[in-house]
Design a protein that fits this description.
- The complex is a heterodimer of chains A (112) and B (114).
- With 112 residues, chain A is an all-beta fold.
- Chain A is built from no helices and eleven strands.
- In chain A, the strands form two sheets. In chain A, strands 2, 4, 5, 9, 10 and 11 form a six-stranded mixed β-sheet that branches.
- In chain A, a hairpin with a 6-residue loop joins strand 9 and strand 10.
- By secondary structure, chain B is mainly β.
- Classes of the chains: A mainly beta (112), B mainly beta (114).
- At the A-B interface, strand 5 and strand 10 of A face strand 5 and strand 10 of B.
Amino acid sequence: SQKIEQNSEALNIQEGKTATLTCNYTNYSPAYLQWYRQDPGRGPVFLLLIRENEKEKRKERLKVTFDTTLKQSLFHITASQPADSATYLCALERASWGKLQFGAGTQVVVTP
Amino acid sequence: DAGVIQSPRHEVTEMGQEVTLRCKPISGHDYLFWYRQTMMRGLELLIYFNNNVPIDDSGMPEDRFSAKMPNASFSTLKIQPSEPRDSAVYFCASTLSEAGNEQFFGPGTRLTVL
């Protein structure tokens, strides 16, 4: 069965450091991989999308990599700030457009 | 644009009662999604619509759940009768019809069934 795995343990990181989150998947051939941020009591908010033929994507302090051989995406937050504290969700989508399948999310806590 | 609007934001009801959740998608978006989020199961897709037509309802857990989209600016998710295990946060999201497009989520409805 299809499975998407994200680190279930919270990632505690000091302000200014780089946070790295992992999204692994099995039995899936996504054409697109998206990352969302979710704050407590709010809906997920889109951050970045990377296509299967792209290796890396950047947006300000965020960087996403996508390795279809390893079936893994890494999400980096550089120069992390306390305001980056949230839960980050990865989501996969097939080429024949339709559903997004979400991972369970990883909580990031950035301390001053 | 105000974004995706959901109501109510919180709903507390007793087992056996009917619950109706409401959603107004972003104007111009032609896809609408209903999700459910729990600690145990994460964010699950229940059903989605394209141009007001249900496309895939394979995520709807049981016949107790039903969803409608009578027009492009309104959708409802109904649970009848409700059960305690339906307690969750229900999100509505919308997007434009193109693969790889981001989805815009509403603030969610927190449902508690006693």
